[in-house]
Write a structure and sequence with these properties.
By secondary structure, this protein is of the alpha+beta class. It has helices spanning about 10-15, 25-30, 85-95, 140-155, 175-185, 190-205, 250-255, 260-280, 295-300, 300-310, and strands at about 35-45, 50-55, 60-65, 105-115, 115-125, 215, 225-230, 235-240, 245-250.
Length: about 325
């Protein structure tokens, strides 16, 4: 089965101009009083396209053109897709928690760019840092401590009474399970429905009480946790970038490495992949497909589903209808 265009975001992003930006971006910069652009460079493409912008005044900004509305992380809500507004809201909440994150200079939407229609964009402050993704990162021991500190900062601030729209939000683990259960029913995946029921029974048997929801980043890695060495040579935290996977949830669902939390995250990923497959094949009736990189989403499906079979949550690995 060939993938619909909405599911081939990576290919479409790769085809975007490397040294140009949409006219709506230029108009936004002009309205904010920025001087003429001196240099535009496409930095990388993943689920989105990231550009570095340099102005005649030597000022620099980061531009992100948002390709995917559905990412590859375990926690998601199809009704609350990745958007410029969700990234901006997550950035504000992180700053309120006391974290250094890039300031969002502006958001907007390009009517048409390349093969895309209605492309959201975010313009950010460029953070000066020593981190160069996949090339220069903090030493492992120091990075692990920095990430632990970031988690502590975020989990220390309850968002129980805080407005967090348009971010995905689940007040407790059962709300998230009900959501997965609904998706499984929608695509008539009986074994996933049963797995959700088993998981719910397991959580209730364990007598787990709900923790208050907090902001979760979902991608705390050496490319997003920007760091630099100080005068003594010890690495310090500069800023946390890439907030497109942000959700508001009980932090155990995102971070706990014990059971059943590990299996719950695996079940969430398998359910998402199966939903994407069902939507692609027409088994799920939906007006507009969420833009995503389906090939990247499904590449670990067999391994993830096999883990659930091994742990007794699924009876078998259901094949996907992709060629």
């Amino acid at each position: 089965m060939s993938l619909p265009e909405a599911f081939r975001v990576a290919d479409l992003l790769e085809a975007l101009p490397a040294c140009a930006v949409p006219p709506e971006v230029e108009a936004t910069l002009l309205s904010l009083g920025f001087p003429a652009l001196k240099r535009i460079r496409k930095h990388k493409v993943s689920f989105h396209a990231t550009y570095f912008l340099e102005f005649e005044s030597h000022q620099e900004l980061v531009l992100q053109l948002l390709g995917a509305e559905l990412g590859d992380k375990a926690l998601f809500d199809l009704e609350r897709p990745i958007s410029a507004s969700s990234i901006e809201r997550a950035s504000i909440l992180a700053q309120e928690a006391g974290l250094r994150v890039p300031n969002v200079v502006a958001t907007g939407e390009a009517e048409e760019w390349g093969s895309f229609q209605k492309v959201p964009f975010v313009l950010y402050e460029l953070i000066k840092t020593a981190t160069v993704e996949d090339k220069v990162v903090a030493p492992q021991e120091e990075l692990c401590q920095i990430i632990a500190d970031l988690k502590h900062t975020l989990t220390s601030r309850s968002l129980a009474e805080v407005e967090t729209e348009p971010l995905p939000r689940f007040e407790d683990c059962f709300k998230f399970l009900y959501y997965l259960h609904g998706l499984a029913k929608q695509m008539q995946a009986c074994e996933l429905v049963d797995s959700c029921k088993k998981m719910e029974e397991n959580l209730k048997t364990l007598g787990l009480t709900s923790a208050e929801p907090v902001l979760v980043h979902q991608d705390l890695n050496d490319g997003n946790v920007l760091c630099s060495p100080d005068a003594s040579g010890r690495w310090k935290f500069d800023a946390l970038i890439d907030w497109e996977g942000a959700v508001v949830v009980d932090p155990r669902i995102a971070y706990d490495r014990s059971e059943p939390w590990l299996s719950l995250r695996t079940l969430a990923k398998v359910t998402k992949i199966r939903w994407v497959a069902a939507a692609s094949s027409g088994a799920v009736q939906i007006t507009t497909l969420p833009r995503c990189c389906a090939e990247e989403l499904i590449e670990d499906y067999d391994e993830l589903a096999a883990l659930l079979v091994e742990k007794g949550w699924l009876s078998h690995v259901e094949p996907l209808p992709f060629s």
